[in-house]
Amino acid sequence: MAEIEDHPLDRFEYEALLASRDGLAWCIEVRGAESLRDQADEPDTRFMAVTVEVDDSEYAGLEQQWWRRRLPARDEFRRYLAGDY
C-alpha cells in the first residue's frame, strides 16, 4: 500500500497489487478465513483513500470485485498507469 500512496505504479505493479487483494478475498471467502477480514480493513481503507471508482476500468474483469473497479485518484498516477510517462 505504501507504494501506491507514495508514487505511481506501472501496469505490472498495479496488477500485482490487485492480485494480492484477489488472494486475500479468496482466503476469506473460499477458505473461510474470517480472521483475515479484520486484517483487510486497514489496507482497504488506505486503498480507497488513494483511488476512485471507475465504471470502465480495464482491470475489472468478469468478477467485478470492488477493488478492481478502482484506479488511482491522482491524474498523474492514472496517466503513468496507462503508460503515459
What would you note in describing this structure?
By secondary structure, the protein is mainly α. It is built from four helices and two strands; from the N terminus they run αααββα. The chain has helices at 2-6, 11-29, 35-49, 75-81; strands at residues 51-53, 70-72. A two-stranded antiparallel ribbon has the order 1-2. The two termini are 22 Å apart.
Short summary:
With 85 residues, the protein is mainly alpha-helical. Helices cover 54% and strands 7% of the residues.
The succession of helices and strands, N to C, reads HHHEEH
Q: Count the DSSP helices.
A: 4
Strand tally is 2
> Structural class from helices and strands?
mainly alpha
Largest pleated sheet: 2 strands, antiparallel
What strand line-up does the widest sheet have? Answer: 1-2
Beta-strand percent range: 5-15%
C-alpha geometry? globular
State the end-to-end CA separation.
22 Å
Gyration radius (Cα, Å) is: 13 Å
Low-confidence stretches: none
Instruction: State mean pLDDT (0 to 100 scale).
Output: 89
Helix amount, in percent? 40-55%
List the keywords.
single chain; mainly alpha; 85 residues; 4 helices; 54% helix; globular; two-stranded antiparallel ribbon
Topology:
Blueprint: H1 2-6, H2 11-29, H3 35-49, E1 51-53, E2 70-72, H4 75-81
Antiparallel strand pairs: 1-2
Helix pairs in contact: 2-3
